[in-house]
Amino acid sequence: QSPSPPFTIKEDGSVDFHNLKKIISVKKDDLIVTVTPATPGLPGFTVTGQSLPGIQGKKTGIVAGEHIDKQAKQHDWLAAVDGYLFFIDQVVSVHSILTIAGDVDFSTGNIDFLGDVYIVGNVLDEFTVKASGSIFIGGSVEAAQLEACQTICVQQGVFGKEKGRVHAQQDIIATFYQNARVEAGRDVIAGNQILNSRIKARRHIIAKTGQGRIIGGELLAGHTLTAKQIGSDLGTRTTIETGLDYHILDQMTRLGKKRDTLTRQAAQLADWIKKNKGLPTEPINPNFLLAQRKQVEIQLILDQIQSEYQELSQSLYPPTEAQITALGILMPDVYIKIRDARTKVISPHTHCTVKYNPESERIELRKFKIG
What we know:
Blueprint: E1 8-9, E2 15-16, E3 25-26, E4 31-34, E5 44-45, E6 51-52, E7 63-64, E8 68-71, E9 76-79, E10 83-88, E11 91-95, E12 97-100, E13 111-113, E14 116-119, E15 128-131, E16 135-137, E17 145-148, E18 152-159, E19 165-168, E20 172-178, E21 181-184, E22 188-201, E23 204-207, E24 213-221, E25 224-230, E26 238-242, H1 246-275, H2 286-313, E27 323-330, E28 334-338, E29 341-344, E30 349-357, E31 362-367
Parallel strand pairs: 7-11, 12-14, 13-15, 14-16, 15-17, 16-18, 17-19, 18-20, 19-21, 20-22, 21-22, 22-23, 22-24, 23-25, 24-25, 24-26, 25-27, 26-28
Antiparallel strand pairs: 1-2, 3-10, 4-9, 5-6, 8-9, 10-11, 27-30, 28-29, 30-31
Helix pairs in contact: 1-2
């Protein structure tokens, strides 16, 4: 049997060199290999009838390496941790950290790993890296897709080119973000600047080291946004929103769309039932009964959606005070929304915070002293 090609042919006939499937991910307690002990061979006879003794079987040369758990009298070898299967020089092991010595490109293909991923080089355009742990990148990220269940750390920067997406359930840290789409379950931290990017963080967006600039784009922080400079003197539109949990907002939006679809279906059913009710003396149409049952089912789902929607709305605004802090300068043409209040910055302000006043239901700007 010929070996499988190192690429995938799509249904349209094109060749996908991104999904090479070179890395075999395994989960803890997955069966890696079953080692059959050597046994003596059965005696036999030559063609002349002379007796031949059985030959003792040879032991396998395979050796259990790192993170291999031997079970059932050492016959079954299981993975002791989540990771990837590594087999070299007759040693089988499971590594919990995947290291890519260079770039993520056509030589590696896409990465989907159960554990932490460390990439020495860059992640190139249109490649995907997924990890159940964290992702550490020594170089930069181009228009790629990154997804981690923990933290993503990029030593250099993220060049999103308005196509790439970086998503982490915890924090995202990079030197800079440019034309990037970034979503973090906790904080987004920039070592230098954020330029023309769409940033979402459920807690904080921070750019207060290096140049500490945030210029252009749309930024949404659940709690606070802090930077040295916000906006630019070139009139670049920068939109900032705080005091709102975007994750809960997304859930509410999805529920709202589902509610609207079901409401339209309920209205269509009600109209059909009204037109096909018939006279009391006429036999009942089976489709009429089905429509009535469907109508009841839809109403039950709508009631459940409404309950979930109201429950989510209670957590839409985080309990902590939302604010925007310009450690250096807040420039004109910065559009700010905190909760339901909006404002546009008309003139530059130095060393200031922007907060929401619940009593006046308006946004207020206050200056502070340095040192």
